[in-house]
């Protein structure tokens, strides 16, 4: 890939990894191979510099993760109020490298239709394959894509669940590369479990995905929670790395959507409105 990165892609905050896992001098790659080096000073201070010596880049620590930008975002790192709730477990699930567009990763995260076929007997099963009608919109006041009233019968919705349950979902795409899922909490009727996916695009067709879970679960061992989430994502990786085209098509007729693809349609329209080209099949005018 040899395209330049446009402003719509540069002006975002991107996750570089979990601060607790970082060591002094660790490096990261962001957007078309820009190499960065992190200098860690304690648990709450990290400086991010360009490896070529051309200076520092803006960075922040949020939710235990390091975020950086190569542009000038007009907003802060995505707000996730549930991360401040003291009784929630923060389960950082490491990162997974995926040979795919970061936009494909986000879109796959929104897709319920693949549950019975890719996550068989976990998030879905045959013959329960139908995606019921759900609502999807671009919320102009916050500039985010939301899908609500999503429901799916799941054999193993979470580690703390015994038996199949009808799971409620809310999907929130906060930036082109950050998405948050709110789903039925088995341990509380009035609250949601929260699963975040922070995508770090290194090249247009190569990314790291950083899953974070914010759970109401004080019983399940940490390693079991991590293994459950990573098993699901590694199943997704097989599909993602075999999708063609590798980059996300934004032209309406490039792929044929179904009724279940309402969130994908809204996401692609939103990206196109933003003028985002990085990671797509569009070319600059």
TrEMBL record:
InterPro entries: Cholesterol_7-desaturase, VanA_C_cat. SUPFAM superfamilies: Bet v1-like (SSF55961). One of its GO terms (molecular function) is oxidoreductase activity. Residues 99-273 form the Vanillate O-demethylase oxygenase-like C-terminal catalytic domain. The keyword Oxidoreductase applies. Keywords: Oxidoreductase. The keyword NADP does not apply. This is Vanillate O-demethylase oxygenase-like C-terminal catalytic domain-containing protein. It comes from Roseibium marinum. The lineage of its organism: Bacteria, Pseudomonadati, Pseudomonadota, Alphaproteobacteria, Hyphomicrobiales.
């Amino acid at each position: 890939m040899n395209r330049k990165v446009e402003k719509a892609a540069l002006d975002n905050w991107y996750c570089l990894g979990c601060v607790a896992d970082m060591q002094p001098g660790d490096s990261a790659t962001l957007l078309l191979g820009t190499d960065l080096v992190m200098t860690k000073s304690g648990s709450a201070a990290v400086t991010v510099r360009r490896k070529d010596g051309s200076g520092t880049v803006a960075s922040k620590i949020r939710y235990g993760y390091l975020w950086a930008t190569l542009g000038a975002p007009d907003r802060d790192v995505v707000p996730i109020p549930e991360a401040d709730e003291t009784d929630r477990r923060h389960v950082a699930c490491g990162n997974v490298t995926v040979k795919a567009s970061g936009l494909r990763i986000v879109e796959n995260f929104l897709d319920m239709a693949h549950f019975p076929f890719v996550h068989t007997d976990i998030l879905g099963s045959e013959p329960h394959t139908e995606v019921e009608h759900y609502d999807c919109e671009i919320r102009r006041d916050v500039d985010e894509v939301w899908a609500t009233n999503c429901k799916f019968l799941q054999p193993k919705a979470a580690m703390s669940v015994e038996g199949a349950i009808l799971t409620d979902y809310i999907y929130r795409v906060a930036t082109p590369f950050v998405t948050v899922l709110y789903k039925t909490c088995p341990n509380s009727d009035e609250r949601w479990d929260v699963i975040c996916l922070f995508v770090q695009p290194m090249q247009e067709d190569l990314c790291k995905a950083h899953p974070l879970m914010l759970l109401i679960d004080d019983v399940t061992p940490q390693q079991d929670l991590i293994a459950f989430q990573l098993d699901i994502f590694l199943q997704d990786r097989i599909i993602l790395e075999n999708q063609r085209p590798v980059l996300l098509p934004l032209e309406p007729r490039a792929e044929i959507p179904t009724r279940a693809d309402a969130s994908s349609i809204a996401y692609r329209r939103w990206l196109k409105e933003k003028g985002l080209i990085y990671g797509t099949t569009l070319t600059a005018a």
